[in-house]
Amino acid sequence: MHDLFQRLKRRHEFWLASVIAVLVVYLSIATQGFLTLQNLFDLLTSYAFLGILAAGLLVVLISGGIDISFTATASIAQYITMLLANKYGLDWFSVFAIAIIVGLVLGAINAVLIDRLQISSIIVSIATLNIFYGLLVFVTGGKYIYSLPSWFGKGIYWFEYVDAEEISYGLNLQILALFVMFTITWLLLNRTNIGRQIYALGGNREAAQRLGFNVFRLNILVYCYMGLTAGVASLIQAQLAQSVAPTVLVGKELDVLAAVVLGGASLAGGVGTVLGTILGLALLAIMQNGLILIGVSSYWSQFFVGLVILLSVSATALSARRKRKGNLIE
Amino acid sequence: MATFLDLKNISKRFGGVQALTDVDLTLEAGEVHCLVGENGSGKSTLIKIISGVQPPEAGGVINIEGRSYTHLNPVESTRSGIQVIYQDLSLFPNLTVAENIAVGQHLGGFHPVDWAAIRKIAETAMARINVHLDLDAKVEDLSIANRQLVAICRAMAADAKLVIMDEPTASLTRHEVDALLSLVRELKKKNICIVFVSHRLDEVLEVAERVTVLRDGKKVGTYAAKDVNDKKLAMLMTGKEFSYDLKETDLSNRKTVLSVKNLSRKGDYKNVNFDLREGEILGITGLLGSGRTELALSLFGMNPPDEGEIKLDGKTLALKSNREAIDNGIAYVSEDRLTLGLVLEQPIAANAIVTILDKLKGALGLIPLGARESTVERWVKDLSIKVSNTGNAVKTLSGGNQQRVVLAKWMATNPRVLILDSPTVGVDILAKDGIYEIVRGLAQKGVAVIMISDEIPEVLYHSHRILVMRQGRLTGEFEPHKSSEDQIRVAVNA
Asked: What residues in A contact B78, CB-CB < 8 Å?
């Protein structure tokens, strides 16, 4: 038991979960609306977009790279897909196929630039964010798409349940996609050799090369996976918003990065887990939601998010330093 | 013994540089073979050809257990049982011990991970060579010696028949080196061929059967280890005879510069007494952790002693910082200062005067160019640094000359006492010789030198007097002309 606690204590996820538990207890007591099925359901639905992107970004960070162009990728994916859906009808399968293909293509462009030109990924993705986004706004003239196909607008709603106050809950498109993408990401990272190669690449790039890992192929996979998640996220966001606006997604990339970093992923690569990312996202969501519920102006929420990130990374850095010292004495 | 690997006529050119010329090499199963040579002698190129990273020029033949190749690729090389353990170990710090050992399981096309198999492989590999490590520990939490064990286990897991170790002892303590050497004997019993690539010759000669010497890309020869000693190898590697004689030097008429009385610091060293005369080179040797570096840092004002006194030219010093030590004429050059203490992109001149910017400062705090030029020129000449232009970046210099610039930097402070901590770690023989020459020259000019080293020949052949430090105390004093390496070694390890 003591041993288990010692092991847990060293894990970032343990501390995150503890903080979340404290927050949940506090908010349940301090507010009326926090610990209700409806609030939980709303939170999951509205944070699914960030969550799916966080899953993609986690994979990129573990590989030792970074991508911030994915919001532009998502904007392009949803715009093209909805244009085509309005024109040709289409169905669920084809809209997801189209959005994913757009994501994969734009991800591959990032991967090729980063791998072949050996430019740092942050610079490449800042550039491609601007290029993708600039092109989209130029071509579309910034025009919104308000009318979506009616089957798309209705969405998916399984296992519907209506309570006494006639509020309905169920498994909707957003929640379904969130769970599916987290599951796929977890399987990729922990149950496939390619996932382990991604961890290895982020841990020691040169050793990975010497061992015979195909770094180019891994980069393609990682940035295309980011693109794929951007494609999926873009559609569930459009479905929730009931419209497509070329200008609303860009700017959210730092929220996604915040969730992943809060979840313990390191910008240096090699470190990060799906569970951590889920907890990081949960902390972000609970903080933002909780602050509104206790009546703090939403302008403050950014301030607190920043503060918590700072505390979180400081704690990680401090414990790493203590660990190094411990090694020296040994 | 069966031949495992046989190389014939291996040559390699990189652009205009001939890295290897017609090298033949035979490695037997179950032998320990040393590959030695100076930097740039072609050792690493030869390893790259054996591991399949580089192809040799046409005409070369690689025979592995009777199969003939004109060149290898990394996959073929690994499949044939060849494993290279690079100096940096090529481990993944973020992954567990088990996953690092069985990382070969992750190669190949997209497939699921069998975690049970990975643990099993790691356990088997550790059991084969009798190593015990926590399978779930992360490699970043292990000591360097244990990381090396992980790398060796990984080679075992890959069914190695030939393990090439690049500078395996460079960052290990003596105790850890002994553990490694006994592990090597274990591998040998399993009929595995081990190749050591090293420049710390005395250690590897303990276990090696044969030694192959490379010089300027050519093979000088392969020798039975029992027929050579490190002096002979140094000659073969450099083509130059190094004879250092152990003659008595009478310094009794020189005046005492530094006098240390009853110096103690809790946990570091206790009751240290010695005198140091003008022009004397005092060697201090001892194991890592014997307190030698802590003592040196105290003399340099960075690790204040609890008790005792330090006198310089008869005056008692109470140093509170290294700045005060420098102002009083004490300079300290640490191991990493000598190899890393330069701003490589900056000009030689700027590097050489960085320690005395305050002294050169003229009106308005600006540095007069004339003063700068003359100071730099004097030291370039005194230390015979080979430069075409002191405005060139330091990185354009050879390693040995870079070290001279570091020394110049410290000599510019006009020290009375110069403390050198492990001055030749990671330096090849020719550059070492250059450093010894400089140190002798400085001593002749009257500088009192303390040279700290764990290489016994270094202190024996290049000091006037040797002190042995053990567990924080000075436990022995030797005069070179009356001592042998073995005597000192016994005192160090007692």
From this structure: 212
Judge if B3-238 and B256-493 fold alike in CATH terms. yes
Is residue A93 included in any domain, yes or no? yes
Domain of residue A138 covers: 50-277
B186 three-class SS: helix
A190 contact residues in B (CB cutoff 8 A): 113
Is A327 within 8 Å of B143 when comparing Cβ atoms?
yes
Q: B88 contacts in A (CB within 8 Å)? A: 206-207
B137 touches chain A (CB under 8 A): no
The answer to whether position A311 is within a domain reads no
8 Å CB contact between A103 and A229: yes
Structurally, chain A folds into a number of domains equal to 1
Least Cα separation, residue A197 to chain B (angstroms): 7
Within 8 A of A193 by CB-CB distance, chain B residues are 105-108, 110-113
Q: Which residue of A has its CA nearest to B151?
A: A207
Burial pattern B282-291, b for ≥16 Cβ within 10 A else e, equals: bbbbbbeebb
What is the interface pTM, i.e. ipTM, of the complex? Answer: 0.89
**Is A247 part of a structural domain of the chain?**
yes
CA dihedral B242, B248, B254, B260 (to 10 degrees): 90
Per residue, the 3-state secondary structure of B328-360, as one string, reads CCEEEECHHHHHHCCCCCCEHHHHHCHHHHHHH
Q: Contact B111/A195, CB-based, under 8 Å? A: no
Mind telling me how many Å the CA of A1 is from chain B's nearest CA? 18
Give residue limits of the domains in chain B: 3-238, 256-493
Q: In this complex, do B107 and A200 lie within 8 Å of one another by their Cβ atoms?
A: no
Judged by a CB distance cut-off of 8 A, whether residue B86 touches chain A is: yes
Convert the pLDDT of each residue in A103-145 to its tens digit. 999 999 999 999 999 889 999 999 999 999 999 999 999 899 9
Q: Where are the beta strands (DSSP E) in B191-242?
A: 193-197, 210-215, 218-224
**Domain range B256-493, CATH class:** alpha beta
Interchain proximity A330–B143, CB inside 8 Å: yes
Q: Which CATH architecture has domain B3-238?
A: 3-Layer(aba) Sandwich (3.40)
Please report which helix (H) or strand (E) contains residue A258, including its range: helix A253-262
Say if B117 is an interface residue toward chain A (CB within 8 Å).
no
**What is the pTM (predicted TM-score) of this model?**
0.78
Rg (CA), chain B: 25
Show residues of chain A in contact with B95, CB under 8 Å: 196, 199-200, 203
Q: Which residues of B touch A270 (CB under 8 A)?
A: 92-94
A132 within 8 A of A253, measured Cβ to Cβ: no
Residues of B in contact with A207 (CB under 8 A): 88, 90-92
Nearest CA in chain A to B141: A327
Counting beta carbons within 10 angstroms of the beta carbon of residue B55, is it exposed (0 to 12), middle (13 to 18) or buried (19 or more)? Answer: middle
Distance (Å, whole) CA A226 – CA A107: 7
CB contact under 8 A, A204 and B92: yes
Taking CA atoms, what residue in B is nearest to A192? Answer: B112
Do residues A71 and A57 touch, judged by C-beta distance below 8 A?
A: no
Q: What is the pLDDT along chain B (494 residues), one digit of tens a residue?
A: 689 999 999 999 887 778 899 999 999 999 999 998 887 788 888 999 999 888 999 999 999 998 999 999 888 898 999 999 988 889 999 999 999 999 999 998 899 999 999 999 999 999 988 889 999 999 998 988 899 999 999 999 999 999 999 888 776 777 788 888 888 888 999 999 999 987 666 777 788 899 999 988 899 999 998 888 877 888 888 887 776 767 777 788 889 999 999 999 988 899 999 999 999 999 999 887 788 888 998 999 888 899 999 999 888 988 888 888 888 889 888 766 555 566 667 777 777 777 676 666 766 777 777 777 777 777 777 666 666 677 777 766 666 677 777 777 777 778 899 999 888 776 777 778 888 888 888 888 889 999 998 888 888 888 999 999 988 899 989 998 888 888 888 888 77
A201 in any annotated domain: yes
